[in-house]
Amino acid sequence: MSRVINTANPGKRRNQLRRTIAELLRHLMFKRELDDEAKDMTAAMVFALREIAQTVEETTTAWEKRNYYLKADRFRSEWEWVLPAAERLEELAIQGHWQKLPHELARLAPHFKDIRIAKMTRSPSVWKASYQLLLRKASPKRT
Question: Taking all residues of the chain, what is their mean pLDDT, rounded to a whole number?
Fold first, then answer.
């Protein structure tokens, strides 16, 4: 029996998510007005940032099992901005404080400056209906 190799390791998923967010940032920069698509894109960024945080935990957990505690701590501190960014975006989306969106996007942009986008590769289906999903998942929190 041959070995099963997982090709979707945390690093690869993290890079794919970073690329998705970089493309969403680019799309949002060219938006003239806040429409339903912009709301969906913002919500999709929230989900992607949360998933990035999850991949960071998967990576650091594996390193800690090998006693690479310093490496894991440095890696965590390098990515500590992810969850607060997701929480800020989620809060502004749920509470409807869309005037804060440009400021939050400007805070996010430096974290993705290393990603070069020559061609948009993400389909609109990636973010379609994300805003409604975010509202549904957040509604128990609001009550």
Answer: 90
